[in-house]
Amino acid sequence: MHTKGRKDTDWEGGVYKLVLMFPEDYPQKPPKCVFTPPLFHPNVYPSGTVCLSIVNEEQDWKPAITVKQILLGIQDLLNDPNPLSPAQADAYMLFKKDRAAYDRRIKQQAKENFPRG
């Protein structure tokens, strides 16, 4: 599946491939959410795995959480990173130390992920 960058954000225009892997015991356990290719983002591991509390079994996962809620949560996270839960050192450091450079990098990433055709 794909998720779009929200309008009026630095992510706008980008379309990002997201793989949701559902375990056999879903919905008791959350799906694993992975961007392919991995995104430059403080809360996305270098592997592409999303670090988000609502898809973390030890944190805020509840079986009633829907796929739509997960996707909306990921869209929110893209534009509003959680600095308390860093997953990617380079993105985290740039986000914390030079927000303007981080924003430029995100805008460039969005351009690189514009739909072709």
UniProtKB/TrEMBL annotation:
Single GO term (MF): ATP binding
Annotated InterPro entries: Ub_conjugating_enzyme, UBC, UBQ-conjugating_AS, UBQ-conjugating_enzyme/RWD
Catalytic residues of the enzyme: C51
Segments forming domain UBC core: 1-115
Keyword tags: ATP-binding, Nucleotide-binding, Transferase, Ubl conjugation pathway
One Pfam family recorded for the sequence: UQ_con
Signal sequence segment: none
Family note: Belongs to the ubiquitin-conjugating enzyme family.
Protein's recorded name: E2 SUMO-conjugating protein ubc9
Organism: Physocladia obscura
Gene responsible for this protein: UBC9_1
